[in-house]
Amino acid sequence: MSATPATPLAHDADALLQRLGVPRAAYTGGDLPVRSPITGETLGAVPQSTPAQVAAAIGRAQAAFLEWRNLPAPRRGELVRLLAQELRAARDELGGLVTLEAGKIPSEGQGEVQEMIDICDFAVGLSRQLYGLTIATERPGHRMMETWHPLGVCGVITAFNFPVAVWSWNAALALVCGNAVVWKPSEKTPLTALATLAIARRALERFGAAPAGLLELIVGQRATGQALVDDARVALLSATGSTAMGRAVGPRLAARFARGILELGGNNAAIVAPTADLDLALRGIAFAAMGTAGQRCTTLRRLFVHDSVYQTLVPRLIGVYGRVQVGDPRSPGTLVGPLIDRMAFDGMQQALAQSRALGATVHGGNRVEGIAGDAAYYVRPALVELARHEGPALHETFAPILYVLRYRSLDEAIALNNAVGAGLSSSIFTLDMREAEQFLSAAGSDCGIANVNIGPSGAEIGGAFGGEKETGGGREAGADSWRAYMRRATNTINYSTALPLAQGVTFDI
Ligand code: NAD
């Protein structure tokens, strides 16, 4: 590709990248084409990192870590404070680039950058709260305590659907904890990653005292991610993506005893109980199921509606599905933008065909033509009425499909909520506190996130984010999230002249 932008969207992306300070050579003339899901046009061509470049980036990060770990944590927090400032200044441009590259509507693109700012603010506070305990010891004249130390190089692999926020969830915490970060973004969204690094570079320059190599970016596909997974210098690997990716990554990390944070797929449900505020439930369901065109890990995919309210709620919901504005995310009023690519469209159509074959009633789900030509994939979100909990409803299809099923008792609905491999997010709409509490109890939802009277989607910094079972078990952004990025040491100090042994053991020589 030439240095002159070839298409109108490439022109817009180029203007944003220039304003964000990304050199043109970083996104032109490379071997990885980047397409916008809005029209299917090519936005740029990014050079992929060679294996030697990946190894060198990890090496630079390792060297940076050895220096960075010696700076006091509140001082490290100062860098993250500056990063938040730079992100605030760049919010419109970076959010706009998220829209172009990932197809999100502008409020979601900007929202993603806001989330980056929020995690930075959160991490700055934590930089003065990396507490260890002092522990009562059974030995007189002794003190026992725990200390927390920086871990090393943190590898971060991210998915296309949150192309920048997930990096910041990891990087902000990893930095205050004294680590260096090597990021492998999704091959579908490298431009926003380049822009994020350009923003971070400004914070590093203003900070002055950060070693080179503290924040590294490597660009490539699965094999590039695998190089990060397998490198013994990477102490922690945080990987966000599909459960299939986690199945490949998890055992490789385990084989070299590396730490992992796995944030994988979800198959999230909501229960609408007899007492639910149905107006509120309708809005909550609509956002959670159709927002981001169904391409959030927390997207609502299964809805269990009590028999007594099914006929009141579901026809209204079908009406909303028929009316919601699908279109170019930049057009005013659009709530549902494009699917990321053809593979996502094919996956959706396949799941709908399987549902039909099982006798389900499918509303919507068709391709919406006339928005941007053949190379873009816009769909009307699908609502699928099921008689049984089976088939594609049991697995995540990363597209806007909502499976709807009747239930009769709360026990039955909770069992259905829990009857899938994934365990990310869940919610109940009810005004009955007994039902709400049962849903949140040990015998309730088995997910990492369980909500009442809001949908399963739309997490907030401060709460631990992540899920159980096939979602991978990782947690990010919670109050103690920093511990994942540090290593813990237990220290026993003897300030007496005796040497009492623990458990009363005697060893007289
Ligand atoms: P994906 O699994 O295709 O790719 C995610 C990332 O993993 C990419 O950077 C990819 O290059 C890399 N990758 C893939 N296979 C790999 C391997 N074997 N070794 C190393 N790296 C590998 O996912 P996607 O399509 O980009 O994103 C959608 C998926 O991500 C959905 O399943 C969604 O639920 C999930 N997701 C989860 C969370 C969460 O926090 N739980 C957040 C966002 C997305």
From TrEMBL:
The active site is at residue 263. Belongs to the aldehyde dehydrogenase family. Gene3D superfamilies: Aldehyde Dehydrogenase, Chain A, domain 1 (3.40.605.10), Aldehyde Dehydrogenase, Chain A, domain 2 (3.40.309.10). Residues 31-488 form the Aldehyde dehydrogenase domain. This is aldehyde dehydrogenase (NAD(+)). The keyword 4Fe-4S does not apply. Its EC number is 1.2.1.3. The keyword Oxidoreductase applies. One of its GO terms (molecular function) is aldehyde dehydrogenase (NAD+) activity. It comes from Verminephrobacter eiseniae (strain EF01-2). Keywords: NAD, Oxidoreductase. Homotetramer. InterPro entries: Ald_DH/histidinol_DH, Ald_DH_C, Ald_DH_CS_GLU, Ald_DH_N, Aldehyde_DH_dom, ALDH7A1-like. PROSITE patterns: ALDEHYDE_DEHYDR_GLU.
